[in-house]
Amino acid sequence: MSEERKNRITVEIFGQQYTIVGREPANHIRHVASTVDEKMKEIRSKNTFLDTNHLAVLTAVNAVNEYIKLKEKYEALQEKLNEDEKEL
């Protein structure tokens, strides 16, 4: 049984270095880290009083909120597609 190779990538998020290990391609891991970094900077620009811990939690809350909205849209589209297929 062959195990998929893990990538070990060092990225910078909000001025801190992190080593991320995952099976996704290196460019995907960098893209995710860059998106988190951008979102943290965006939130910080609107809330300069936040410490890093609160900023990280708000970033996570925003990311999960966006994920849930997209998941709900996907499920609604999937349901519509299934209904359309039944009509055919």
From TrEMBL:
GO terms for biological process: cell division. Keywords: Cell cycle, Cell division, Coiled coil, Cytoplasm, Septation. It holds the Pfam family ZapA. It is found in: Cytoplasm. It comes from the Bacteria. Residues 60-87 form a coiled coil. InterPro entries: Bac_CellDiv_Activator, Cell_div_ZapA-like, Cell_div_ZapA-like_sf. Its main location: cytoplasm. Activator of cell division through the inhibition of FtsZ GTPase activity, therefore promoting FtsZ assembly into bundles of protofilaments necessary for the formation of the division Z ring. It is recruited early at mid-cell but it is not essential for cell division. PANTHER family: CELL DIVISION PROTEIN ZAPA. Homodimer. Interacts with FtsZ. This is Cell division protein ZapA. It comes from Pallidibacillus pasinlerensis. The gene is zapA.
